[in-house]
Write a structure and sequence with these properties.
Elements lengths: L1 E12 L2 E12 L3 E5 L6 H9 L6 E6 L2 E2 L5 H7 L1 E4 L11 H9 L6 H14 L14 H13 L5 E5 L7 H14 L4 E5 L3 H7 L2 E6 L2 E6 L1 H5 L2 H9 L2
Helix pairs in contact: 3-4, 3-5, 4-5
The protein binds adenosine-5'-triphosphate.
The site of adenosine-5'-triphosphate has 11 residues, from strand 2 and helix 1.
Length: 235
């Protein structure tokens, strides 16, 4: 069964059709990469899924319930967690406090500290718990955001360009992390790094000019002439 479904989902910004009539199904347990040229509408689509951007038309369902008009914080309560291109950490708080804030959205008491350590260990930041978040490298800040998502034990984890700004070794660790998480979490990954897409995604969806152009396994998408043309066409 699909954990996440969109039907006819569209968004226009003052006449610009950023997302156009998108039908999207994400089965439970899958790692799905969402790719497409710059400006294709990926962030807008995911923003509508998370409840940050109201759609112009169409619907979003999560676990069989229509959530089209549900506010973002209530979607988090249902088990959606997401990290965005713009970092959402509190720079003046230390690493553990940032993750604890996210954890307290769904737990309290001693459970918080335990969950914080588990999440930070998973992303490889457990040796930096007392460091001020603002002093972390950009790549480590991205990992911190992932820990803030993970600590909520989400059913669906949405990551918008998580490897942007990461060094090669960190990208390799990220691929391993995604494969480990995929045992119990459905993952939607906006990603420009094709090696990450090829090595972590079960399937790939391709947006182009706001429309779903293709969907398939990484190998099918890699060989798809329409996809290649879409990337060439927009540089
Ligand atoms: N708030 C907004 N107001 C007006 N236009 C917007 C707004 N947000 C996005 N757009 C436009 O909508 C289109 C899709 O943008 P979006 O950010 O969703 O694409 P994207 O695929 O995520 O791009 P990128 O890979 O560069 O992040 C673009 O033409 C963008 O300029």
């Amino acid at each position: 069964m699909s954990l996440l479904t969109t039907r006819g989902l569209s968004k226009s910004f003052e006449g610009l059709q950023a997302v156009n009539d998108v039908d999207f199904d994400l089965p439970q347990g899958e790692v799905r990469a969402l790719i497409g040229p710059n400006g294709a509408g990926k962030t807008t689509l995911v923003g509508m899924i998370c409840g940050r951007i109201p759609p112009t038309s169409g619907s979003v369902s999560f676990d069989g319930c229509d959530i089209t008009t549900l506010p973002a914080h209530k979607r988090i309560g249902l088990g959606m967690a997401y990290t965005f291109q713009i970092t959402s950490i509190f720079a003046g708080l230390d690493v553990a406090e940032n993750v604890a804030l996210a954890a307290r959205r769904r737990m309290s008491g001693d459970a918080v500290e335990e969950a914080v350590m588990a999440a930070l260990t998973r992303v490889g930041l457990s040796d930096r718990i007392n460091q001020e978040a603002g002093d972390l490298s950009y790549g480590h800040q991205r990992l911190l955001e992932i820990a803030m998502g993970l600590v909520q034990a989400p059913r669906l984890l949405i990551l918008d360009e998580p490897t942007q700004g990461l060094a090669e070794a960190e990208i390799a660790a990220f691929k391993t992390l995604i494969r480990e998480l995929s045992d119990n979490t459905t993952i939607l990954l906006i990603e420009h790094n094709m090696s990450v897409v090829m090595e972590t995604a079960d399937r790939v969806s391709v947006l182009s000019f706001g429309e779903m152009l293709a969907e398939g396994t990484p190998a099918e998408i890699h060989a798809n002439a329409d996809v290649q043309a879409a990337y060439l066409g927009t540089g």
